[in-house]
Amino acid sequence: MSLRQFLSEPEENQSSDSSGALSVFSPVLPLFRRIPPERVGLCGEFDYDGLSKRVEHCFRQHCRETDLLGLRVSQRGAIVLLTGRFPNPQTKHELVALALGVDGAVGVEVNGETIFPPLRTCHLSVPASLHRAG
Questions:
Q1: Are 113 and 107 within 8 A, CB to CB?
Q2: Structure letter (DSSP) for residue 46
Q3: Three-state DSSP class for 4?
Q4: 3-state DSSP: the chain helix, strand, coil percent, rounded to 5?
Q5: In this structure, which of 30, 99, 101, 109 has its CB flanked by the most CB atoms within 10 Å?
């Protein structure tokens, strides 16, 4: 049986929906329909550089134009890359915090130095009844 016949003639174990399309791959398709968070564009569409565009948009909303002069935003996967000059260290820290707050960003690289958000730690308290008497 050729591929064309396979797709055009559903067999007994292949169902077709109301549009006539085969649903033999339906369990697999949702995996391909989900867009990774770092690839979501400004309007929710797939965009290979979506994360960097959303970070730039966030910067424009929260920062002065002069703070962003000479700054370039790009991405490598889910890492936001910031290259250029910052007016002062405080602005640099604010921009890093804003970038880390954008959905899909797992880290920020500033002029070659990678910064990851602090890990949340879980502190467990041990009940007094479990302490060993010395």
A1: no
A2: B
A3: helix
A4: 35, 15, 50
A5: 99
